What we know:
The complex is a heterodimer of chains A (197) and B (278).
Chain A: H1 3-24, H2 28-39, H3 42-58, H4 69-85, H5 97-106, H6 114-122, H7 127-135, H8 139-150, H9 155-162, H10 166-190
Helix pairs in contact in A: 2-3, 3-4, 4-9, 5-10, 7-10, 8-10, 9-10
Chain B: H1 4-15, H2 24-33, H3 35-54, H4 62-93, H5 98-113, H6 132-145, E1 152-154, H7 157-165, E2 181-191, E3 194-203, E4 206-214, H8 215-220, H9 228-236, E5 239-241, E6 250-254, E7 258-264, H10 268-276
Antiparallel strand pairs in B: 1-2, 2-3, 3-4, 4-7, 5-6, 6-7
Amino acid sequence: MIPVLQAVVSRSTKKKHTEFEAEALPHMDVLYNFALRTTGNEDDARDLLQETYLKAYRFWDKYEKGTNIRAWLFRIMKNSYINRYRKETKEPDKVDYDDIENFYNSIRAESTDPNDLQQQLYGNLLGDEVTKALQSLPDDFRTVVILCDIEGLTYEEIAEFVECPIGTVRSRLHRGRKLLQAKLFEYAKQQGMIKGD
Amino acid sequence: MVDCDEAQQYAGDAIDRSLPNGIGKEFQAHLEKCKPCRREVALETLSKHLVRQNVKQIATPSSIQTLILSSLHLEYDQGQSDRGSWLTGLLSLRVALPALAGGIVALVFFLIVSSRTDPSYQMTAHTASNDIINLSFANFALMQSGKMQPEMVTAAPESVNDFFQKSNLQFGVHMPKLKTCEWYGGSASECSGVKQAHLLYKVGKELIYVFEVSDDDALYGTQVSLPLAAKRALAQSGWYTDPDHPDCNVVLWKTDEAVCVAVSTMKKAQLVALLTTP
């Protein structure tokens, strides 16, 4: 190539690279955690994170400067996840809401203090079990629970990330939390940490 | 008044502190009267509490950070060659108006000659051996032992500036002027095509060594590199202190043309204060 053109191409590519590193790389930890919670293992999380960053880099020209970069990266990760993992799933996750309601109706929790409730319902449950229970939630529910309860995003931000109305976010969050509790309660019963009815 | 259905609907908002304006008092009033709703809110609060308490944030492992960075570097290199092929192909078609092509080339030529010499911008993966921070530590140890000595020593900082201006380093050496400094030392060198500046400060009983290379070499070069965390911090704030070497007290900063690494036995906070005081 003509040396002068080579220099121009280098300059343009360098600018893009510098901008990308400054804007996108600081969000690596939050993306990695999301990937880890979503895929459930480090290998898949690594692949998903790598795919996300490569796609983001290739389409950096499409990113509208000054808008929410984290939301943009999350959307790329979500779409990558759907393409990579969900295409192998023939049917969407099914949730038996009756089971959840039965759990809520059956527990004899008289206290409304969260600490008392925790001991009463889950005994000395360890963090690993909570992580496993979170992992077992259907994708849509797990996503909003992670974004709200771990990442601390507002409903508006989550709605932007998952491209759903706020009402849907609210509903998924409510159901996701209930489902999580039902799973933890069942696990605690199986482990003999509590007396289940 | 908020009824049970509405209380259920707003339970999540209350827990996440996003209740609509004007609903809060009515919601609380309902909870005080309604035990089932109180329990519902308590259970949902417990769920959030359990997740927050037990699911910890994990830092991206350094091996994955390196992998991502390497992938991006490959993309960067690929992007250069792809664009180059495209431009070459376009020119080889000979369908573009010669005058337009001539104008573009003239404009490009003007831009290039009016700027500094253009490096190749080939990047390399970061390793311990090409890590600028490690090189700085090694140089500092050589300075302390006397095996590496500055080419010039002076009590006048202006003389050090003059020395570097005559050294043809092709980047502006940044020289912090320290009020309490007894003497200054300076050296210029070149290793594998990377031009380097070495500054030495004697402050009381302490030595401060500053290693400088051009930002192109530090951030995009083939011979030296920086950890991802350092690149991130320099891009964001212009400053970085390395948490992996808590006792070595290293501080990095970036200027328009150079990346500078200061190493000292001085306490890190004291070193930062000294370097950042105008």
